[in-house]
């Protein structure tokens, strides 16, 4: 799952993180997650780097469908 939130106006509160709830290192497979599971689909990082999920496109479109992200990822490859 990928989500990008673009804030365009208003006050942004100071970030505060007390308990991130991350799994213990022995159970953390972040490399596997970032590498993607299906070679035909973008990983989370690759999805966020597509033109479809660029902040300017998100603001213009308002909502971006997963199919558009996949198409953008494939056209960049």
Compose a concise summary of this entry:
With 77 residues, the protein is mainly alpha-helical. The chain is built from four helices and no strands.
Description:
The protein has 4 helices and no strands. By secondary structure, it is mainly alpha-helical. It is flat.
Termini Cα gap: 21 Å
Mean pLDDT: 76
What proportion of the residues form beta strands (DSSP E)?
under 5%
* Helix percent band: 25-40%
How many strands in all? Answer: 0
Regions with little confidence, pLDDT below 50 for 5+ residues: none
Characterize the biggest β-sheet. Answer: none
Shape: flat
Measured on Cα atoms, how large is the radius of gyration? 15 Å
Q: How do the SSEs run, as a string of H and E?
A: HHHH
Number of helices: 4
List strands and helices in order, with pairings.
Blueprint: H1 30-34, H2 44-48, H3 55-61, H4 66-76
